[in-house]
Each structure stands twice: as structure tokens, then as C-alpha cells.
Amino acid sequence: MANEFLTADSGENRNAHDPSGESHDVTSVAQDNTAYLLLSLQETVIFPGMVITLPVENPQVASAVEETLPNQRQIVIVALKEGKEDLSGPEDVYGVGVLGRVAQMMRRNDTLILAVEAQERVRLQQLHQREGFWQVNVEHLASSSPPASDQYWQAAVRNLRESALRLVRTSESVPKEAEPVVQNFSIANTGLLTDFLAANLSLSFEQKQKLLEETQVVRRVDRLQKYLDEQLHITSLQAKLREDVKTEFTEAQRRAFLREQLRAIQKELGEDDGTDSKVADLETKIAEAKLPEVAQKQADRELRRLQQLSPSSPEYSVIVDYLETIASLPWSKMSEDQLDLKRAQEVLDRDHYGIEKIKRRIIEYLAVRKLNPSGRGPILCFLGPPGVGKTSLGQSIATALGREFIRIALGGARDEAEIRGHRRTYIGSMPGRIIQELRRAGTRNPVIMLDELDKLGADFRGDPASALLEVLDPRQNHSFVDRYLDLPFDLSQVVFIATANMIEPIPAPLRDRMEVIRLAGYTPDEKRNIAERYLIPRQLQENGVTEEQCHWTAAALNLVIDGYTREAGVRNLEREIGSVIRATAASIARGDIEKAVIDENAVKEALGPVRFESEKKIRQSAPGVVNGLAYTPVGGEVLHIEAIRYPGKSHFTLTGQLGDVMKESVKAAESLVRSRADKLGINPEDFEKYDVHVHVPAGAIPKDGPSAGVAMFTALASLFANRPVNHEVGMTGEITLRGLVLPIGGLKEKTLAALNAGIKTVLIPRQNEKDIPELAEQVKTGLTIIPVDTVDEVLQHALLPAEPQMMSFESESWPQHPH
Questions:
Q1: Which CATH number covers residue 788?
Q2: Has residue 527 got a pLDDT over 60?
Q3: Is 317 known to be catalytic?
Q4: Which of 750, 780, 808, 813 is catalytic?
Q5: Are 545 and 679 part of one and the same domain?
Q6: In a 3-state reduction of DSSP, which class is residue 818?
Q7: Is 707 in the active site?
Q8: Which of 192, 211, 606, 772 is 20 to 30 A away from residue 752, measured at CA?
């Protein structure tokens, strides 16, 4: 349906003369045949030059906008007449609006948001109603103004600008940012100046619509001058009234009087919200918190501000939350330490089996705190594979000290505000995790465990690891400032303990602030003892089964350890034990049995086929096949290395997902073997006649690192010398081109893997000899550990005498690797 749109231009002649006596006619652009989408606003007038944000809540209009916007970015915006809530026909809107360009479109929940730049005045001609929205044809209106040389015109524009500047400087209702904008308008763009002033002055809806409909700039200037004079007069009267009040009342008296009046009115209306009692409660809480002097001054200042604010003010609730946070923090509350070292030793022995060196270091730490309570002890960082008891060690320390225990999981944290908090200027701001946890604990000296420190991230929101530098520095954290509090808080009495699986991801400055204590994986005997003492009783209790109803045999426990778990810790071991006990609990609950003896058959019935063949050494000595030792974040591994040769042209093939460093180790080993060909009894021509393929099984698992250099060299030397490698020997170490063996890391884990695989002798770098006393006693008694300085010593211990033919080995001797 189409409607003709007829309107009068504010009831005035559009060809009126300006005071200078000249005529300035309105120039109308030819009829625009484009059908523009029409948006109507309630009691809102938009002027050319304005950039506005419009919410489109009507789903049909929003769909029309989304459909037409890619092809037509211009829309018409017009004001609804007074008393109209929606557009139902031409009589509901004014005849003049603006043509705007949609600069941006976005969705927020179910509402479409448009950013529109108003461009020019338009007169509505024909309205077309569609399904749920309107389209309109328009006539473009051009504004006219006298020539810039007209002296009367110059005086009128200058007078308008000066009046506007005076109002900006004296009125609180006009934004101060308008002053430089008004000053920068020239006489040539007076039309834009009038539109800017009309949009920003406190004018009525009808006055603004008349200014929009006025196409003669002269008339707009004249009307705006009148409006400005009126507002300047009102502003001067308000200033005079304020001055008169100041002479009669001081500021404090005025506020007190107004508060008393407000209280009386609220009481009469039954709307007394207990504001006074709320402020009094806060004052009492703050007094009981015994704040430091700096915090007390800040709290008093905020209390005074709170008393001056109305409860309906948005800032009122912000200040109340802030003061409640300050009052609830343990500024002076501390737990009394129970520094009984014998009791601490009993707690550690009760909660953890083995790890004697770690327990000894913890007792030393507690002894220093007992002798020097005010001293700044080091920040401990427990480093080790998952499931070895790092978190439970922190709980044991808290129990031994008699302190509260707090665990803060840092895995995946990427926002610096997690540590330092948000500033109070943001909506929903809150303190950082450390202040929040201290508030919950109610004490200033808990044990705080920063779990998974190596899993911290960093993005555009900041680097949490950098924020932790101050927290974990004993010489700085006595005045830690959370952004929300904006007050120094003493963290020097907090016992911070960090945990990590790997040391490399932790930034060096943060690593430098901590004492790293390494926890190696458990031996099978240690796992067996841990299972018998802790895991089985805990799982029996959690599943409602008594020890009389469920008895484990040693063989069944060994089967779970060796056949169903492959880890450095005991987390998966406990999970598998729980699965077996739950199967038994189900049988007892059904009434099938009253009690059960869990043997190997019961384990296989509950857990299925054995998942892991125990890691074994190579069963048969063969040239080119070596037992290497590797370290992973979850413990040590036996790394079987194979090398074969076949007729070719000195080409090397490397497989098994080897990293760049390991590939370089193979190249270094090849060069070293070539350089020692005569000494090893190798025909130099063989290097040119054969291709070599080096493979490391478990090809789906990426491998890297320099510590396989010794094993690579031994495999190639054995291959070309046709001398088998002793399958009872395992080795680890980095090599140089001079044949030296360099030190490696992870010796505990590697020797433990060798012991589990049945290897008898392990060759290690001489510089790692100092680490042998730290190995588990079972490892030291079960292995012959031989330190070596050079690759020649490695070959002396690893190679067997040459045999006439190349030896082979059984494929069934290789362990099953998980995929």
C-alpha cells in the first residue's frame, strides 16, 4: 500500500527573508525514486552530522535491515509525533527526517544494533507498508545561507558562537567537550554548527523538530540565539541562587539539613531503607578489622563519601561492596603455628610413603621457621610428573603447621586480573584470586598452593606469570597491591608452594624466585606399598566395602601395577583399583557373594585384557639394536633404537617421529663413526656402498632431545662393525664430535625405567655420577651403573665380540606400545 505524505513546514513560509533583506530560497533535489527503509524514534530528533546507535528490537524490522543492508546501506530516520508509540500510518510521524548511512551492524543477544551516521535532511513523500516494516520515498532538502561576505550574517554567526561558548563554560548540563568543537566551526559551515548546537542543547522535543524542519540557516541561527539567551539567563539565575545559599549555609550544614529532611520524608512514606544502620554496621566491622593506618584512612574517606550519597546512586553499592571487602579481610588475624617437628614428621610419614629427601627438606623448612618466625623463607616449587603427590604434600605441610590450606588452580589462567584483580571503575570488578582466598580463609598466614604453575598462559589480557613475580618474592610481597583494593596487603606470612610438571614453560624470572624440589616417579615396590597403605583402604571406604569383604592378593596388585598402568605416579593406579573394587561391590550388593578374594582372574574380569606388556629389554643381542633411555613428563621410558643397512649410495633414512635435535644427534653419531672407522675395524668403503635406516619404535609418539646421542652412535658403530650390542646394557648421554659424553637430565626416571625393563647395566655420563646417591635404593641395588667419559668406554661395555653373520632378534621380544 502506498500513501501520499502531505505536511506543512512548521506553518511558516519556506521562502522567508532574512534580516539582511535578501531572499534565500530552499533548493530541493529532484524526487528520489529509491525506497528507503524507515525507522521511527519516539520523542527523539536526529540532526545531520550526528553518529548514533540504534537498537532494532522488532524482529521483522531487524530481518528487513539484515536483508537490505548489503545492497542499500542508507535508511531514513524520523521522529514519532507526541503521544505515538509506534508507526501505524503517515499521520503518526513528522514530515521531515534525516537520511543516514549504516556504518556498522552487530547483534547483542536478540537485539540488532545499528551504528548510523546522519547525513542530510529529507522530506517524506510516499510511505509503503510491507510485512512488519515501512519503506519511504524522499525528497532531498538543501539548506541555504547568506554569502560569507555579508556583514550582518558574520555578526549573527559570531554572536551565536560566543553565546554557545558562554553556555558551555557556565552550564553543567552541556558537556565541556563541546567547547573546542564550537570554536573550530567556521562561517562557511554554520549549518553544521546549528545542527551540532541543536543536538546538544537542553531543548524540548518540539523545539528540536522545528529546527530540523527549518531549511534556512538564517532562521535556525535566529531561533538558536533565542534559545541560548534563555538558557544563559536561567544559568545566571541558578548561579545567583547557589551563591545565596552558600551565604546562609555551609556545605556541611546544607548536606546535614537535606539528609534530615530526606530521612523524615522516607519515614513518613514508610520507605526507610536503613541506610544509617548500614553505614553504622560498616563502621563497626571496619573498627573490628583493625586495619593498618593507610587502609583505615582509605576506609574513612569512603565512609564519608557513602554518607553523602543517596542509596539509589549507582556508586552507593560500589562503595558498600568495597568497604565490606576491606572489612572482611584478615588484616590482623593469623593462625598460631604448631612448629612441633616430631609431629610434622609423623604427619608426613602418615600421608606419604617414601620420598625421604623431600620430607627431610620440608622438615628443614619448618625448622627454620621455628627458629626465625619473622624470617622470609624460600618459595618451594614441587616439580614432578602427574600423580606423585605434589598437591597432597602441600596439604601435609598445612596440617603440620596448623594453618589453613588454600589451593589456587592456575591451569589455563590467561588474565592478569586473576592475580591482581580488576579496578573498581569496571562493572562487576572484584579482587584477584589471592585476596579472595585470603578473605575466605579468614587468616593472613595460610598455606597457599599455586597448582599447575607451568600451565599459565598469556594473551591480550596480560601475563599472569609476570603478576606472580611480586607475589612470590619474599622481599616484595609484604606490600602486595591488589588493583581492586588499591591498598598494600602483607603477604609475607603466607607460605607459598607451587607445583609443576615441567620446568621449561615457567619463565626464568619466576623460576629464579623459587627453590625447585624434584619428585621422581615411584618404583614398583613403592607403588605396591602406596597401594596397600593408602589407595586400597581409601577406595574400599569410598565404595562402601570393608576389608573383610574384599581382600587383595599380592599377585593381583602386581598385575594391576604392571599390566594396567604405565605412569610415574599412582593416579591411574588408584583409578584401576577403584574399578576392581566397584565390580566386587556390585556383586556384594546383588547378594551374589558375601566377600571376595581379588586375585589375577578377578582383576582381568573387571578390567579386561592386560593393556601393557611390561617394558622389557631386547631379548637377543644383535648388531645395530640398542637399549636407549629417555625421559618424558610422565616418567622414564626404554627407547629401543634399530639401525639396518642395505646396498645403496650412502643415504640415511630416519623414522619414528624424531625431533630436530634427535635428528642432529644421528648426524653427529654418523660423523663420529666415520671418523673412527679404522679404530672400529670398519671398511670406509662400506659407508658409500650402503644406505642406512635408523628407526625408533612407537612411531606414533614424537621424540626429541640430545640424550640419545650415545645410543645412536653405538647402534651405527655396532651395525658397521658387525658386533652385537649387549642386550643387558642400557645407555644415555649426549655426544660431541670429539667423542665426549655430556651430562643429561632425568637420571632418576631413566634408571627406574631400565630397572622395570629388566636391564642389568646402565651407562651414564661421568658428570652425572654425583646424582647416583639420590637414586632409589632399589635402583642402586638392582642395576650396575657405570659412568663413562667417552664413546670408546661406551663401546667397551656395550659391544660383544664380532660374529660371522649379522644377528637377528625375535619380533615378539618388543614391548607393546600404546597408541
A1: 3.30.230.10
A2: yes
A3: no
A4: 750
A5: no
A6: coil
A7: yes
A8: 606
